[in-house]
Fold:
Amino acid sequence: MAPPATEIALLPLVAGADIEDPNSSAGKVWHSSLDTIAAQPGYKGAFWGRQVENNSIVELLIDWDDVAAHKKFISDPSYGPFVKHIGSILDHTAAVIMHHVEFTPHPHSVAVETTTSVQRSSPGATEVVTFYLDPSGSDSEAQAFEEAVWKFMTEAVEKADGFTSAAGGWIVEEVEHEKAGGKAKGYFLLIGWQSVEKHMEFRGTEAFKEVGRVRKHLKHVEGVHVKFIAK
Structure:
């Protein structure tokens, strides 16, 4: 049986698209698009939010029964009109990025649902990190990297003031980034914080310096913060 999977989509919005307002023209397109996704067989739930560092980019996380369930939607005749509809609020001069992650634990809500509930009383945010590794690396090298990640998480991050929860997993597809020298093997990590400021304070501690044990395995790493909203 195929494992459950989460679709990760990075969507560049056109300037001025107020998708948070369901009564705006862009909001109507956005929310009706989410409703279309939610009506598909195999859909389990979704979270979305703008990147704090670049609020023209929306990160959409969709849980599916498995990768095949999402691909079934892509192959359905309704998918073309869906893409055209949601495309009306996207900036076509920038790339849409989409891939799948098999999280441990699954679903990812362990890392974003807690932060979403925290936001009711404070400015909670989820740190979203993508690690890029050599695609020719062996399984044992990949295992060593993953062990280094969770050792750092257990010994440093989880003890940090403001940490709430975390989930991570390998990206199913091969990824690509110019700063990684092209194609790479990807690992995706979500870390919940009570606020962006709490995360930045942690980065200034002695404990954070242990991240070097993780970075030695990498070609590149990128991280942003997102204030996710449940569908």
Observations:
- The beta strands are 5-12, 43-50, 57-64, 97-104, 125-133, 163-171, 175-177, 182-193, 220-226, 229-230.
